[in-house]
Amino acid sequence: MKLTALGVWGGYPTRDAGTTSYLLQSESGFNMLLDCGSRAVTELEHELQPTQLDAVILSHYHEDHIADLGALRQYRQLYPLGQDGWDGMMLPIYGHGENEYEFSKLNLDKVSEGHLYDVENGTKVGPFDITFLKTVHPVVNYAMRIVERRTGQVLVYTGDTGYFDELTEFAKEADLLLADVYFFKDKAKMPNHLSSIEAGQIAKEAKVKKLILTHLPQFGDLDILLTEAKEAAGNTVTTDLAVPHKKWQL
Q1: Could you report the per-residue pLDDT of 74-132, keeping only the tens digit for each?
Q2: Which pLDDT belongs to residue 223?
Q3: In CATH, which superfamily holds the domain spanning 2-245?
Q4: Cα-flanking dihedrals φ and ψ of residue 27, to 5°?
Q5: Distance, CA of 33 to CA of 42 (rounded, Å)
Q6: Which pLDDT does position 180 carry in this prediction?
Q7: Which residues pair with 155 in a beta bridge?
Q8: HEC letters along the chain
Q9: Sheet strands side by side (includes 55-57)
């Protein structure tokens, strides 16, 4: 699997970068978007044609994670049929059903179709087997454990969450942990988002290989945020900041 950062900020876009959105590509060439925050379409165009997306999966329905869904669908709706091989494929968008109104908006006639992911038994999306864990957040959010069947590689994406013990077991021995880190260590134990040291501790205890900090704060020195996470994660975990268009091979 290959993961590419598209948007990395939490809450709102700034400094020529958008909010949470990631392109996950399988070894077989399946292209899936993890969340679709602001600027996702513009940034995606630097990686591939938005018509080449095979699926989108959403952790939750806060605007900084879904802001560009409308633009993405309008892009595919208006793109000329036949150009660059575009066949007008319906875009499957996977989300939870615990907000019926938001889920209903995933359907757009002849453009996109909402699919409920199975939070109890897991869901197959293309070459991926995905299991889910409800997190600590003001609205319903699901962390995802994504396993590529062909390679056995594991990516865990927290979505938005405060700290809770079950996250460590959920992330156990992942090749890559993509973690919501909106706070520095002086604000550890905040209820809605992880701090640098909490993400580092989870990565260390779960024995993950790579920790990527995302949903970054617009305030403070991000080098300090990274240092705090590195110190908590220890030397056995490769820890990195998400930057638009940075790529990680699992």
Answers
A1: 999 999 999 998 999 999 999 999 999 999 999 999 999 999 999 999 999 999 999 99
A2: 98
A3: Ribonuclease Z/Hydroxyacylglutathione hydrolase-like (3.60.15.10)
A4: -60, -30
A5: 13
A6: 95
A7: 146, 176
A8: CEEEEEECECCCCECCECECEEEEECCCCCEEEEEECCCHHHHHCCCCCHHHCCEEECCCCCHHHHCCHHHHHHHHHHCCCCHHHCCCCCEEEEECCCCHHHHHCCCECCCEEEEECCCCCCEEECCEEEEEEECCCCCCCEEEEEEECCCCCEEEECCCCCCCCHHHHHCCCCCEEEEEEEECHHHCCCCCCEEHHHHHHHHHHHCCCEEEEECECCCCCHHHHHHHHHHHHCCCCEEEECCCCCEEEC
A9: 112-116, 91-95, 55-57, 31-36, 21-25, 2-7, 247-249
Task: Check if the beta carbon of residue 110 is closer than 8 Å to that of residue 134.
Answer: no
Length of the chain (residues) = 250
The answer to whether the beta carbons of residues 7 and 20 sit under 8 Å apart is yes
Reading the block at residue 216, the tokens are 């970054």
Which position has the token pair 């969340």?
35
pLDDT digits (tens, 9 = 90+) for 62-74: 999 999 999 999 9
pLDDT tens digits, one per residue of 150-205? 999 999 999 999 999 999 999 999 999 999 999 999 887 888 999 999 999 999 99
Domains of the chain by residue range: 2-245
Amino acid at 123: T
